[in-house]
Design a protein that fits this description.
The chain is built from 8 helices and 7 strands. With about 250 residues, it is α+β, with helices and mostly antiparallel strands.
């Protein structure tokens, strides 16, 4: 542990007192152990074999055990740091949602029938051009948070890039589509207040259903083409991949 991290943990006077107390106890204990070792190892009345055995035991107590503890702590900290780095690598920093990499990994656990909805914020470039990129980021955050609150119960919601989100669900396709339709209507009905600006937001979505035997990339391509159809047909709507047999 570096000195900076150690100092960072000392948050109050109470923490400081505990730190000093523990350090003092460690120092006193070490001094006593060394004194005992000195008395035992150099006491002429002990046979050489016994002194050797005592030296081994004291070495284990004074040196080896703290060393093993230090190595174990370093290993645990390294594992914690690795896990945190892995989590960061699967998380979108703007919204806190799983990212595209996480979506690909999640798709491996969603075997069999699966609903995939790709949702896009309509005319997002105009939002950036009109209100600025900071406002655009806030729109993405707000839409992601609202979508996660209302649709997250159906399955993982991921931000897969730019203004696009993806919902993976094992639930009944009609239920997922109905929830998505209601959410799209609510978003369109009330502008989002971003600072002093009222930003009108609408959403388009493409929905596909994966049947057993189809790969995730196949169903993703179908949902992406359906999203393109929704954009082409006027935006603010849901379109379906061929064979989805769903109604908006």
């Amino acid at each position: 542990m570096t000195m900076r991290r150690l100092v960072g943990r000392i948050r109050s006077d109470r923490d400081l007192r505990l730190f000093v107390l523990r350090g003092t106890l460690v120092a006193v204990t070490a001094a006593l152990c060394l004194d005992i070792a000195n008395q035992l190892l150099f006491f002429e009345g002990w046979p050489a074999a016994l002194r050797s055995w005592l030296f081994t035991v004291l070495f284990a107590i004074i040196v080896a055990m703290p060393l093993f503890n230090l190595v174990g702590r370093a290993h645990r900290e390294a594992e914690t740091a690795r896990a945190e780095a892995e989590a960061i690598g699967r998380t979108d920093p703007l919204t806190g949602l799983p990212n595209r990499r996480a979506m690909m990994e999640l798709s491996e656990t969603h075997l069999g029938t699966m609903v995939l909805a790709i949702v896009d914020i309509d005319r997002f470039k105009a939002v950036n051009d009109t209100y600025g990129h900071l406002a655009g980021d806030e729109v993405i955050r707000r839409v992601g948070r609202m979508m996660a609150a209302e649709l997250g119960r159906y399955g993982p919601l991921c931000r897969i890039g730019g203004e696009e989100f993806a919902l993976l669900s094992r639930d009944a396709p009609d239920e997922v589509v109905e929830a998505l339709r209601l959410f799209r209507e609510r978003i369109a009905a009330v502008p989002l207040l971003v600072g002093e600006a009222a930003v009108q937001v609408t959403l388009s979505a493409g929905v596909a259903v994966r049947r057993p035997g189809a790969s995730f990339m196949e169903v993703f391509a179908e949902a992406d083409r359906a999203l393109y159809d929704a954009k082409r047909d006027g935006r603010n709507r849901i379109a379906f991949a061929p064979g989805a047999a769903l109604r908006a």
